[in-house]
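Project standup — Tuesday

K.O.: blocked on the structure for the chain from last sprint. Re-posting the sequence here as requested.
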Amino acid sequence: MSSLLETIVEHWVAVFSSIIFGALSSIVVYRLVFHPLAQIPGPKIAAATWLYEIYYDLYLGGQFVFEIGRLHQVYVHVNDPELVDVVYPRSGKEDRQGPTAFLTIDHDLHGIRRGALNQYFSKTAVSKVEPYIRQTAENLCQRLESYARSDTPVAISAAYSSFTTDIITEYCFGKSYNLLDQDHFVPNLQAANDAMVAMLPALKQAPWLHKIMRLIPPSYMLKMNPGMSAWIAVENMLDLFRWTRKEKSEDRLFMEAVVLVNAATATTSGNISLATFYLLNQPSTFRKLHEELVSIASDSEIPSLAALEKLPYFNAIITETLRHSFGPVSRLPRIHTSDAVHLKSENYDYVVPPGFPLSMTSVHVHMNPELFPHPEAFQPERWLDEQGRRQKHLDKYLLTFSKGSRQCVGINLAYAEMYICIAAVTLRLGRRLELFETTYEKDVKLFRDGFGGRPQPDSNGIRCRPLKPLQLVLV
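H.V.: unblocked you, prediction finished:
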């Protein structure tokens, strides 16, 4: 016995390595042969190790979303749009992970957290803040007008980021930072969002890194990334955000606030920026929208939200923008805890046991040519019938705000901001706004996964130049 111990001690490196190798080998064999999902086809390396996904998302930089699309073509896999309501049901128990209402794993706990927010983001509640949204949209247009005098191009995404941040902070905390009044719309949350997006692939694989980041003092955070100053200001606003005890602890409320502000700022401003690009890039589309808006607009006021929502072509533009924006490009998994999920079509027949995550990727549904012919084209007409009336049979395939019981809580606020802001910009200075050194391939087309879609790394974003009245170009 003593000689055996002596041998182990003498060759401890080899012994330790053998144990590790044996353990890893056992895990791989289990995953490839005995795992409940082993019968579902796919690359064996992806079944054996997370390194497959890590390679595409961390090493190649947000490319796993495209690899998923390639796998759908190589393997008989689940990319059937008809499964949207199966993966994201409106009822039944489905879990996911995280400390906020958006990220909560447990279905019942999610219901508690979501229930506390629902009443504040209902259509009725949002209608009460409509005057402030209209006022902020008018302020945005005035700020954009000021750049016409200097002939200076504007990073339109920064302007819209300031617009949406001013609204959500006023709405949630009763205090706006008036970012629209800042010179060149700086600071805004866009730089901080970009910094967070850069960390998402690593945080997805190692969630514990977030706790470490929260321990970094603000002064050091600012040295590493000056763009985080706006987020640090949001932290200071927590004193205005009141709830209680366990579900109202400062840490959880802070995370809830971060998610609300981030989601309301980044996604909606991105959607409005995208709509602006397509309207300016397609003069005929802009002309049709302008004519429709003028038909109900007065000289002094932007039409009401209720009136804007009734315009079929405007509604089609909003919907087509949402199709192109994708919402979360990253998968939003759901864990069905009670029942197995049966995924069946002519090409496959799988049964996924309870407790395993399921997801669909919005990009591959929104760009499905069988649903949307010429999917890369921006065609609002695809949402209209021959008489120009809005048809809604394709709406069920939109995943921009996710689906099911965990659909985005801020959907009503997002729609209100999009309608009012786009209408204001179109009526007030749309004809005097032109794209500046912005192309689809470099600045708009999806290039990488950053939770939401991101363009090429060297993109300067969607930029516009407001023209002086005498420079008006008729379209």
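K.O.: great, moving the ticket to review. The chain has one domain: 82-471. The two ends are 92 Å apart (CA to CA).
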